[in-house]
């Protein structure tokens, strides 16, 4: 069987924060941020729950699926609104769902982890036939807005897909990984803000993503040449360029949103799915590779026949 995308939805806060806005309050510049990260502006505002509900409602409407027809909600987030319950509980109520619901926290790799989990659960006896998978984060709530090494990167958004069980298999390959010894290079303690060793994260991210994509492709019996569309986690355009160059994937096969969204953690890959669909590149049968990495470190790749 396969978990096929039947609907997509996104949510971006209204407030736009440009690089010049940041340069007005800290020692940085539009030129530096664009050159080192590829980011021009980002959206800030809202809670994880609010953004997730908006994206989820749009995905259900896009799919033409009634909330009562959803069999499972999986919400990926790094920024839950409460310590307990999981934010998926508020989203469940907000969307009027009647199914099971749980959160996944695998940082910026979370949406891809959630996709693999949803696909796997569909294969269980009596498994769900329709799963709403949402990636939502309000990273602005854990960002130190006086720290130029992190404030330039992180922002808020949500993206959602309705995955539907169909007989044709479509998850050709996947790879989930973690290295918990790397917690100290990117973390946020309760009540505090994100702490990051940027250069170290950059280096490790490139290595982890290249190896993860290679592993998922090998399991699929494919090579980088077979990838039609690459939807990478949006953390830094230079990380994406380094990954593409190492894998020999032409840059025009990737779909990026980072220039106008910044790094929105769990939301970046579903935002890219939406952008890829709008760009008309997600034809049926195409080989689409989604790959993410984040704090933990975690990494996750799926190779899907669309
Ligand atoms: N504006 C201007 N100068 C800045 C700056 C900013 N916002 N941030 C850092 N600098 C300065 C540094 O102080 C340093 O100055 P120095 O040479 O005088 O010491 C110089 O720029 C280079 O700093 P460095 O940290 O080496 O820059 P970089 O090219 O590695 O870019 C990041 C910094 C954070 C953009 C980059 O390391 C990165 O994106 N890392 C990955 C982060 C990530 O992906 N996190 C999320 C994972 S999901």
Descriptive overview:
The chain is 34% helix and 25% strand. The chain has helices spanning 19-23, 30-37, 48-63, 87-95, 110-122, 148-151, 198-220, 237-247, 258-261, 268-278; strands at residues 2-11, 16-18, 41-43, 72-76, 100-104, 130-138, 156-166, 171-178, 186-187, 195-196, 229-232, 287-294, 298-305. A hairpin with a 7-residue loop joins strand 9 (186-187) and strand 10 (195-196). The chain has a five-stranded mixed beta sheet with strand order 1-7-6-4-5, with helices on both faces. The chain has a four-stranded mixed beta sheet with strand order 8-13-12-11, sandwiched between helices. The protein has a two-stranded antiparallel sheet with strand order 2-3. It is α/β, with parallel strands linked by helices and 306 residues long. It folds into two domains: 2-166, Peroxisomal Thiolase, Chain A, domain 1 (3-Layer(aba) Sandwich), CATH 3.40.47; 171-305, Peroxisomal Thiolase, Chain A, domain 1 (3-Layer(aba) Sandwich), CATH 3.40.47. The protein is globular and about 55 Å long. Bound molecules: coenzyme A. Coenzyme A (COA) binds at residues 28, 32, 36-37, 108, 148-149, 152-153, 186, 196, 198-199, 201-202, 205, 235-236, 263, 294.
Can you lay out the helices and strands and say which pair or pack?
Blueprint: E1 2-11, E2 16-18, H1 19-23, H2 30-37, E3 41-43, H3 48-63, E4 72-76, H4 87-95, E5 100-104, H5 110-122, E6 130-138, H6 148-151, E7 156-166, E8 171-178, E9 186-187, E10 195-196, H7 198-220, E11 229-232, H8 237-247, H9 258-261, H10 268-278, E12 287-294, E13 298-305
Helix pairs in contact: 3-4, 7-8
Bound molecules: coenzyme A.
């Amino acid at each position: 069987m396969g978990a096929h995308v039947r609907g997509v939805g996104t949510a971006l806060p209204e407030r736009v924060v440009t690089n010049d806005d940041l340069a007005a309050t800290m020692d940085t510049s539009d030129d530096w941020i664009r050159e080192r990260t590829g980011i021009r502006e980002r959206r800030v505002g809202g809670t994880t729950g609010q953004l997730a509900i908006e994206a989820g409602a749009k995905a259900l409407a896009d799919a033409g699926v009634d909330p009562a027809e959803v069999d499972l909600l999986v919400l990926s987030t790094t920024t839950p609104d409460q310590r307990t319950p999981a934010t998926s509980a508020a989203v469940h109520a907000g969307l009027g769902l009647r199914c099971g619901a749980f959160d996944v926290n695998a940082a910026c790799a979370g949406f891809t982890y959630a996709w693999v989990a949803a696909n796997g659960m569909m294969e269980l006896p009596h498994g769900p036939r329709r799963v709403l998978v949402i990636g939502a984060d309000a990273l602005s709530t854990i960002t130190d807005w006086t720290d130029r090494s992190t404030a330039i990167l992180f922002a808020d958004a949500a993206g959602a897909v309705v995955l539907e069980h169909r007989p044709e298999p479509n998850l050709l390959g996947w790879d989930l990984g973690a290295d918990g010894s790397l917690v100290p290079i990117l973390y946020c303690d309760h009540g505090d803000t994100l702490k990051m060793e940027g250069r170290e994260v950059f280096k490790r991210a490139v290595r982890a993503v290249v190896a993860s994509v290679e592993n998922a492709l090998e399991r699929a019996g494919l090579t980088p040449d077979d990838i039609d569309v690459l939807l990478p986690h949006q953390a830094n355009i230079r990380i994406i360029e380094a990954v593409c160059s190492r894998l020999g994937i032409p840059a025009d096969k990737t779909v990026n949103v980072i220039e106008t969204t910044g790094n929105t953690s769990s939301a970046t890959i579903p935002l890219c799915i939406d952008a890829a669909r709008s760009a008309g590149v997600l034809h049926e049968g195409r080989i689409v590779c989604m790959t993410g990495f984040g704090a933990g470190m975690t990494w996750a790749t799926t190779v899907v026949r669309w």
